[in-house]
Each structure stands twice: as structure tokens, then as C-alpha cells.
Amino acid sequence: MLKSLLFLLCALWLPASTLHLVTSSNPARLNPLLATDSSSSEIAGFLFNGLVKFDKDSATIIGDLATKFYFEDDQTLLFELNSHAKWHDGVALTADDVLFTYELLRSQKVVSPYASNFRFVKEVEVLDKYRVKVHYNKPYFKALEIWMMGILPRHILQNESNMMSSSFNTNPVGSGPYKLYQLEYSKNIILKANDDYFEGRPKIDEIVFHVIADPMTRFLMLKSGQIDIDGLDPMQYEKQLPKEFHEKFNIYETISFSYTYLGFNLRLEKFKDPKIREAISLAINREELVDILYFGHAKVCRGPFLPDTPSFDESLKAPIQDIERAKALLAELGFNEKNPFRFEIATSNSNNIRPYAAQILQHQLKKAGIEVTLRIMEWQAFLNMVVFPNKFDTVLLGWGLSPTPDPYLFWHSQSDKKGGFNLVGYHNPVIDAMIDESESIVDKERLAQIHKEMSRIIVKENPYLFLYTPTAITAANREIKNIEPTLGGIWHNYIDWEK
């Protein structure tokens, strides 16, 4: 009794520890089935769990809500759930929630690009309160990884008639290490530690996301210590950090699981001839982009799969700028100084570097006689007015990829639909057939070979111009204890951090 009283008194006396983070835009929906923008998916990651997750090096899949999982055969996967997992309202998380999440994702109630990941699931079978069996129509190379999708609470959402506009999307109840406490658009988003989290209560009491759209404001807040962790762009890292900054912050740098690209709207007649796309590609100096924008903290991107992964094709070479060849191709199509080819590049200012990248591209393309206009927009407006309704000439965007990305999402004709990630409208029956074949391949070497063949075709056709793969430079307040940097970054053990 005395020990409990002393613990309570100490808890009341000790100030709450707070981790200050930043996000560049308001989250659209804090629902893992609908979180397609970076702000939503980042914050939802603190609130929800999947059945499995990647280990600290992003190399091996380990349990999350599932304490045990195994394949009974190539088409049958069984999960055993952690019986201590609870929703934030105290209700037990069970197999019924897993079945409900799957059925909701595959229903007409939601429009989600993530639904395509589950297209080969034949049935989700509840065996008992804490065991789920998943039956597939055929072997699937991502059969396990798709269950990293956050699970939703059946008891809260089972009678929800309109999930797309549900209040749950901005007032979610998850199972994760933190609970949503406050959501103030364009101001602060506050998360509180989940006292009953099944892996143990996080040691940092609260996380505050400051919504700051302006990159310079974010940088100034980081330098002044108002933000504990944030990314640095190479210019900031190389040229704009005072000596005392390094006394207060640790710097971590890893290759990012992402790339930036210029995507053509292939639905438009002006981009359907492959010669025009090749001409634009040859007018671009990718090395110059990397040098000017990244000071060596990036690599030229050579294709749709990331370096140092089995699917990456080392034989692919980045196009070398050739202005004369670009002009010759343009001339073949009837374009010259009196009749220049014109198009617009649309991008968002939520990323520090892309507006500058757009300006450099504009300058480079001008040398080949191509006239480019720029449209720089706030992130949500960019998504809702440009990207999702396909109202663009080209978009300067990036993809964050898992270590084993699913090419169906980006390159299959069937992903060119509302809510799909085939944003540029790429249709190639050969690629479709290769994707369809690859989905049933569980042999990693054979799968990697098909991905390499796909890469060569996609790179040759130029639906995207692959530009660069940056490194991720992260500054973290030295007051945060127990950060363990790995190949997968620093966030794998954040519930053990102290401040």
C-alpha cells in the first residue's frame, strides 16, 4: 500500500515528458484504411497496429498484434493474436476485429488503394476469439506483408453507414501505443501514452505534432529546440547549421525507401508518343539535380525498384543528358523554336526540395526548347485538385516503398481508377501479364528476375522519369535516450525512448 502511494505521489510530482514533432500538412483521415497522405499515415502509425510488422532493419517480418503466425500451406496462413491487446476504450481486440477490417476494406463502403493488396484473399476465417485463418485463392508473394495494415474496432464501426465521412476518421480509437487526445487543424495534434498498451506503456507521456506548412519555419523551430526530431534537407545540413546545433542534436543518415519522379499524364494526347517522353528525359541532367539539391546526399534513380533490394536491376543505366538528341526528337514531331513543346509541372511545397527541383527542371528543359510552367501548391489542395482527379500535365512526386513493393499498385492497368496509385494512367498488357504472373511466385530469386525484366520495360517506355533517391537525414534531440539507429531508421523502438 505504501509503495503504491509513493508511486502515485511521484507520478503526480514528475512533469509529463513530451516529444515535439512536426508535420507539413493536416492529416486527411486518421484511419489506416484511408490514410494515403504522409501526414495521416505517419500519425495513424502511432494509433493502430497491424498483425505483423518489419523488424528493426526492415528485413524480416515479425509479430505485432500476432504473437505467432505460420503458413499451413502455400495458400493458408494462420495468426494467433495477443490476448492482452486492447482498444483504447478498454475493449479486448479479437479475431472478429480482423475479419471486420478485411470485410470493410473489400466492401463498397470505402475507396482505398490498399484494397488491391487483399485481392487474392479468398476467405478470412475466425477459428476462435484469438485465432484467424486466412485462405488465399493462390500463392501470393505478399501474403504475409499485407497484414501490416492497421486493424479497426468492430464494436465501434460495425453500424457505420458512411466510412468515408465518418467522425471516426478524425476521432479514431486504435490499439496502438498512443491515443489521440487533441486534433486542432493547422495547429497541434496531441497524442497521449496508452497506459494499457500490450507491449508496455510508452515511456514518453505525450507526442505533439505541430502542423507547420512552411519549411523554413520548421527549420527555425528545430534549430531553436522547439521540435525534437525532424528531417534536414542537404542544404540545411551542409550550409545552415551552427556549431552549437550539433551539441544539442544527434544526426542520423540512412538511404531512404523512396524516390522522386516526374510523372506524365498518359491520358493526354500530348504525352502518348514515346518520342516526346524520351526527348524530355534526354533534356534532363539528373546528376546536376543531385549535385545542386542534395550535395551528394542522394543517388540518381534508375528504375522503379530501390537499390540494394533483390528486385533492383544493376544493368540499368540512368539516361545521360543529350540536348541535341532531344532537339532532334522534338523536330521529328514538329516542334521547334517557333512552335515549342509546352507543358506544366505541378508539385507541392510540403516537401522542401521539390519546388526547387521543379525550377531546375524548367531551366534544363529550356535548353532543349521546351517551355515549362510551374504550379506549386499546398499539399491537400495538390492532392484533391490535381493528383486524384488527374488534372495535370505532369506531377513531380515521390513514392515511399516497402522493402518488397507491390508493382500492381503503381503499374497495373487496373490500378488506374479512383483511389488507385496508377496516377499517370500507365497501361501495358505485357506489364499487366508479368505482374499477374509474379503475384503467385513465392520463390524470391524468380520473383526478383521478373521484377528486373519489368524494370527494363518500364524504364524504356518512360511513363515516369525516375530522378533521384535521397538519403534521409534526421536530427534528434540529444535529450532523447535509448534511440538505436539501424538500417531501417530510428523509430523501431520509440516506445522505449525517454526524455
Task: Explain the overall architecture.
The chain has 499 residues and is of the alpha+beta class. The chain has 2 domains: 17-228 and 479-499, D-Maltodextrin-Binding Protein, domain 2 (3-Layer(aba) Sandwich); 258-471, Dipeptide-binding Protein, Domain 3 (Dipeptide-binding Protein, domain 3, Roll). 28% of the residues lie in helices and 23% in strands. The chain contains 15 helices and 18 strands. The strands form 4 sheets. Strands 11, 12, 13, 14, 15, 16, 17 and 18 form an 8-stranded mixed sheet that branches. β6 (121-128) and β7 (131-136) form a beta hairpin. The longest helix has 18 residues, at 444-461. It is globular and about 70 Å long. The two termini are 29 Å apart. Residues 1-13 have low confidence and may be disordered.
CATH architecture of the largest domain: 3-Layer(aba) Sandwich
Quote the CATH topology of the largest domain: D-Maltodextrin-Binding Protein, domain 2
Residue share in β-strands: 15-25%
Which residue ranges are poorly predicted, with pLDDT under 50 across at least 5 consecutive positions? 1-13
> Helical stretch count?
15
Main beta sheet strand tally, sense and closure: 8 strands, mixed
Number of domains: 2
Nearest-angstrom radius of gyration?
A: 24 Å
What is the top-level CATH class of the largest domain? Alpha Beta
How confident overall, as mean pLDDT?
Answer: 93
Short key terms for the protein model shown above:
single chain; 499 residues; alpha+beta; D-Maltodextrin-Binding Protein, domain 2; Dipeptide-binding Protein, domain 3; eight-stranded mixed β-sheet; four-stranded mixed β-sheet; 18 strands
